[in-house]
Amino acid sequence: MNYKHLLFFTILGTTLSVASAQDIPCFDASMDSIEVNSPSYIIAEDLDGDQKTDLVIASNNYEIVVLKGRGNKTFDPPQRYPLNNYAYKLQVADLDNDGLKDIVVDSGRLILWNSKTNTFSQTETGNSSQFQFALSDANNDFLLDIVTPLGVQINLGGRKFRAPIYFGTSSFSNAQNAVAMSDINKDGKTDMIVSGPNSGVSILYNLGFPVFSQPVQIDHEEAATLLAVDMNNDGFEDIVSSMFHSDNSEGIRVFLNNKSGYFDQPVVYKYGTFPQVMDHGDFNNDGFTDLASDANSQILTSINNRNGGIQSVTHNVGSKVRALAVGDIDSDHYDDIIVGYTGKNSIRIFYSNIPEIRIHESCQNKETTIFTTKMYAGYNWSNGATGVQEQFVSKVGQYYVDVLLVNPFETCNARSNTVTINSSICLGTEEILKPLIHLEISPNPTSDFLKVQAEPNYFPLTIHLYDKMGALKLTKKLESSTDLIQLSEFANGIYLLNIELANGTKQDQKLAIIN
What we know:
Blueprint: H1 2-15, E1 26-29, E2 34-35, E3 39-45, E4 54-59, E5 63-67, E6 79-82, E7 90-93, E8 102-105, E9 110-114, E10 120-124, E11 134-136, E12 145-147, E13 151-153, E14 155-157, E15 160-161, E16 165-166, E17 178-182, E18 191-196, E19 200-204, E20 206-208, E21 211-212, E22 216-219, E23 223-229, E24 238-243, E25 251-255, E26 267-270, E27 278-281, E28 290-295, E29 298-304, E30 310-316, E31 321-327, E32 336-341, E33 346-353, E34 357-359, E35 368-372, E36 378-383, E37 389-390, E38 397-406, E39 411-415, E40 419-421, E41 430-433, E42 438-442, E43 449-454, E44 461-467, E45 472-478, E46 482-486, E47 493-500, E48 506-514
Parallel strand pairs: 35-41
Antiparallel strand pairs: 1-33, 2-33, 3-4, 4-5, 5-6, 7-8, 8-9, 9-10, 11-12, 12-13, 13-16, 14-15, 17-18, 18-19, 19-22, 20-21, 23-24, 24-25, 25-26, 27-28, 28-29, 29-30, 31-32, 32-33, 34-35, 36-37, 36-38, 38-39, 38-40, 41-42, 42-43, 43-46, 44-45, 44-47, 47-48
């Protein structure tokens, strides 16, 4: 308890003073791991259109495991589909246009066709390829094809594919590390992005199926993974690569599309380790693409700063990461991270835990209200015009709130909307509204007493007051919905107000200031 408060007050002055405009999530690990024998590849997708994220996992035990999500952090019993060989890569998409997503193993070696009974039937194609591949409509017939750096298997419909058509790109081989498909230049034809030992990162422009241009190299560095995603929300897909095998380039590179089919020079983010697996999602529900990647025994979340750049935070996950996927497992509109470990027979889910906050648009004859859906350690008001932080609203004007969550491994923050405080009635009085408790304290700052008001059904409750070093200074049990805490004998300073309910649940609520 003391350590938590000491940590909080130690970093408050630095962390909140530089809080960025975007929300930075923390991630909470699920209590129970899910048993999967040595997971090597994970995909998080809604397989059947029920608006709940499912998991598809390749296991070193020569099987594909399907976990149907219930949208509440639980899954149906696993479905297991045996393989006759190790699975290198999985892709999930609706190949037969029945509204259900199918599973492609390696570059079409095996296809698991989804059915309305939520089970899968298997088709062996006879292809033994272990190439990197992507699923894309290469010939514009509204059916997804299987594309590799060497060729394409055309989807004929009726759950049938043609034999591979080869592109004749002799500079490529099955040693390519990554492939992605995107209409880079918005000409209605899907282009190919590849990377490998001899190609760096290159683009093959679709000249009209089945003809592609010669490779156009945009980076000489080899990439372990490639993503084609719109990082700056301009309607043009950009390229994100994880780099390795270079003394100076380990980390992530972002290539922004200049809207002409070419790319700006990459922005390089060096982390001292190279990600081998990477996925994308939206961790703070701001509509911009964020990234997640492995970093040895950590995961690296790269939060979009809303112009295509990223701000990265590492999160300890306990063991070396082998597989990783991103999806909203608990249906809270914030993407979570699913991790498979090297040499372990389980996966774990790390749930995005960002303090979603909002305050009333105006304060008219009522107290300023703050609402947050997550736990937090404290918050500060900031003047909307100057950005100067204050412990309370001292005068009318525009304000927003920065919320800080701290645990021993990481910090995260969130910023509310900006509101207009236009009534002196609001000054020095606040409400705190949370799923657990609705509490009002006033005045704040104070010199001799603090009035505490809460909904009657929360009483009795106990107030704990800690100083900024984490020392407990006061404990008082409140028996009614309105009570006073006498503070006249306390030294001036900042104190942390902690609420304990009758069932023993505790929450840090607010910084109380005595002056």
